[in-house]
Predict the 3D structure of the following.
Amino acid sequence: MFETPDPDDDSPEATAAHGLVTFENQQDFDCWLHSEIPALGGIRPATLLATEAGRQQVRDILGRIQHGIYS
């Protein structure tokens, strides 16, 4: 199992770790990361990782997925 990232760490690496915890395997996370996500307005999450605000959006969606909220 993957280690849960520090919620106060907003680095790209911590965001990726959050994705791995959420999807439980690299292949599924990579597929999601490069897909157009309706909850992000059709944007691919990978394109948002370059900025702090974008990473926050990605982490918010990952948190919704973890809690079973349709995203």
About this structure: The chain has a mean pLDDT of 90. The helical segments are 12-23, 26-33, 52-66. The CA atoms of residues 35 and 44 lie 5 Å apart.
